[in-house]
Design a protein that fits this description.
This protein is of the alpha+beta class. The protein has one domain. The protein contains two helices and three strands, in the order βββαα. It has helices at 35-40, 45-64; strands at residues 7-11, 17-21, 27-31. Strands 1-2-3 form a three-stranded antiparallel beta sheet, covered by helices on one side. A hairpin with a 5-residue loop joins strand 2 (17-21) and strand 3 (27-31). The longest helix is centred in the last third of the chain and has 20 residues, at 45-64. This is ABC transporter ATP-binding protein.
Length: 79
Amino acid sequence: MPTSSFLEIVELPDGRIVLRRAEDEEVLVTLDFSDDAKLFLQGQHVEIAKAMFNVGVQMAGRMSEGDFEHDHDEPRVLH
C-alpha cells in the first residue's frame, strides 16, 4: 500500500464499516458487527471500529519497519 495514501473510515448504508483509500474508494478492510454486538456496545460500535482500525494501521506500520517479530514455528492463538 502506498505510504502517501490517505485512509478513511466509512460506515456504509448496509451498516458495514470499512477502511479504504480516500482517493479511489477501494475497500482494504471490512468490519461487520452483528446486531447483538451493536446492542451490547450500545451504539458505540463505530468508536470501537475506529480503535480497531487505528491499532491495525499502527501494527502494519511497525511490521513494515521491521519492528514486529513473530515465530512462524509456533501456532498463533487469535482471541
